[in-house]
Design a protein that fits this description.
single chain; about 120 residues; alpha/beta; Arc Repressor Mutant, subunit A; 3-stranded parallel beta sheet; two-stranded antiparallel sheet
């Protein structure tokens, strides 16, 4: 599998970065984060110990549907669906539609790397 590189940036910074890319003022480097969180708290919530356990179960048990995943984990299907949709939004899982419309969760990466600068370079002025 692959490593997903994530970063932390405010909504305003993410919007400014996206607009700079759209205007051709910034080119995304291969080593830059591909996914952004607005805070370390939101990153920690999405990748909590319980959610990492859920990812491990998906990889190890390869459930064929959300119903099967609910049986394996003992969690409500509605809660699993909500959690997995959030994780899919961050590129951590794929929700593949299978036979008879069943949704099958697949883990997209085996590692996450957090790019978290501790200081911000000041612009010369």
């Amino acid at each position: 599998m692959t490593t997903l590189k994530v970063g932390i940036a405010s909504y305003e910074d993410m919007k400014a970065r996206t607009m700079a890319v759209a205007r051709g003022e910034h080119r995304i480097a291969p080593d830059e984060p591909k996914v952004w969180f607005t805070s370390t708290e939101s990153f920690a919530k999405v990748l909590s110990a319980g959610n990492r356990d859920l990812l491990r179960v998906i990889v190890e048990q390869a459930p064929g549907s959300l119903d099967e995943l609910a049986r394996i984990t003992g969690k409500a299907k509605s809660n699993l669906s909500r959690t997995l949709r959030t994780m899919a939004g961050y590129g951590l899982v794929r929700l593949e539609r299978g036979e008879r419309g069943r949704i099958t969760p697949k883990v997209a990466h085996d590692r996450v790397e957090l790019d978290l600068p501790l200081t911000v370079a000041r612009k010369a002025g």
